[in-house]
# Entry
Amino acid sequence: MSIVRVALDVPVPTLFDYHCEDAGGAQIGARVLVPFGRKQAVGVVLEVSTHSTVDRTKLRPVTRVLEDIEPLPDDLIALLRFCSEYYHHPIGEVVIGALPTRYRRAGAASSRRRPRSFAITPAGRAASSSSALARRPAQRRALARLLQQPDDAASVPPNTAAEQRALKQLVVHGWAKETATEVARTDTSTPPEPAPPLTAEQLAAVRAFCTQPKKFRAWLLHGITGSGKTEVYLHVMAPVLAAGGQVLMLIPEIGLTPQLEARVRARFGGHSVVTLHSALAEGERAANWAMAQSGAARIVLGTRSAIFTPLPRLALVVVDEEHDPSFKQIEGMRYSARDLAIWRARQYDIPVILGSATPSLETYHGVLKGRYGSARLTARANGSLLPRIRIVSTVGVKLMEGLAPQVLAAIEQRRQRSEQALVFINRRGYAPVLVCPACGWAPGCHRCSARMVLHKPRPALSCHHCGHDEPVPVACADCGNVDLRPLGYGTQRIEAALNAAFPTARVLRIDRDTTRKRGAWTDMRLSIDRRDVDLLIGTQLLAKGHDFPGLSLVCVLNADRSLYSTDFRAAEQLFAQLMQVAGRAGRRELPGEVLIQTAFPQHPLYRAVQTHDYDAYAATLLAEREQAGFPPFMFQAVLRAEALRIEDAMAFLRTAALASASFAELVTVFDPTPASMQRLKGRERAQLLVQSASRAALHRFLDRWTLVLRDGKHARVRWDIDVDPLGI
Ligand SMILES: [Zn+2]
Ligand SMILES: [Zn+2]
# Structure
């Protein structure tokens, strides 16, 4: 009897044993349908054995081996096992979570076998001239058909059910082999676009990255905005594709994929390109994933979760905007797709390129220490200059609906020259708070420690953390005052102010509320390109990657609130965001200008942005981090707990800290604290930070600790571990 150990989507760190009659089908990596409790669940076979520690009479059989896709390959399983260990997350959740949604659900589990093809074997070639097939005409004809193929690797699908039966008989004799059908979706309708000439810096980068294409090396492509990093990626990809390899390219924003996809398709028309991200329909995502697994898709463009795509011929990994926080998953298994990209490149012994204008300090530190190679792009590819950055002080200045006179004047100037301007404010809605001026009361969300955000034109209050909406109150809940006032500014309020200040201007607001509908953002981008828009108001959706030729002015509002954040990464992230958004201005022939409106004009962060001096600012931040004992000089993990009552969460963490005392070697265990946002979606949250100068010591500690924590009974508390946390 064959025993299979199956990973299932349950929060326990074990595999589940089943017996399986179909020993041939129950290979490692195969998806199976199994009874679990009273339901049927989809699982993945991770081990096959002849014995089980479970009593034989209690073992249940596998319901069915699912054959609609190929079994997961060994290297992907190795990656998933690593994730489970490194991020201390249950193996079953890791494995099932890596599958496209369609392949996780029992209801959708198809009994349809994937299409099969057959190819000849050397034994079959020898047998064709023997008399063994004389009395089996169907098999003889099938073998003859295989023999007509150009080489032994070429496979053919059966034309009829009878031929399929004959081909299967050939397999039984060892004269043919069965292979998965590759559904190649090559786009040959348009001839590939020629590559533009490279600048000297781009060429040097391409040469560096291509020196040893079959050896692991992590490279930083450190290039200012508009310096043509994408062109470098495409040039490095070309020889990889020509040699038959697959390329995985991770990008932070779904919003950027259509443009990038179009560009990649135009360049590599003959090779199949697929995208993988959460905005795809379930069926399309599953189909694209299967194409990557079969090798038919040569280029996979995807967001974070695409790191778990099976890629049998992976030969290059690219992580664009590698500093972007969206590469870190912040719930469930809290992995970093950037870090896993490096792990996967090492696993395959291939190069990985991390690209950014403002690298994460972790990556930059890796370059300084010589662990990563690097190439710099210090000039814009089209010869345009970086925008001039001016700091606009609001100290003692009367603002018009949140806008300084200098900002309004600069916009007016662009209006007269028929150039476009962008006002960047990273806050959607009308006003972040509605307040009673008489007593200071402001409505908060009943489920979160957050103020309700005022939205217009149909006035409503909305919580941006849990999505709860409610009508605007008619009076103050504390003192009955009916004159409630909006406080602060969001995109809608700035939109109203700009419409009032520039009545003839065509104003377009771009935030999550206006781009929710499918295709909305594409339409907006086209209208910006056609110059049907004069003034743009946008959140960070607009900050990254886009190239608007008519845009010559960017005004940044409200950046100050990140300056004095308690999060030690806030400065790094604000600097990156400002450099990104500034990079939208003047990318073509128009000279660009950026105005940063601030109440803290002397702040060193703004000075650094003004001089575009990443290296100097990174050196300052790294020195601060080293002195304070923060990453990248320390390795951290956070134990996060949530419960209905904060006392329960805190008590759990205190117990956890005490329990760790006996084995906390080379590790500092801090006191538990309530989370910076204590209540979220009706649950109270607290956390406990542990850190060590040694990654190995930290993980030895976490291994012990999770065992202890899993043994305990904490009925009222949900907890998990966040390794290499981004926010603390
Ligand atoms: Zn009041
Ligand atoms: Zn809420």
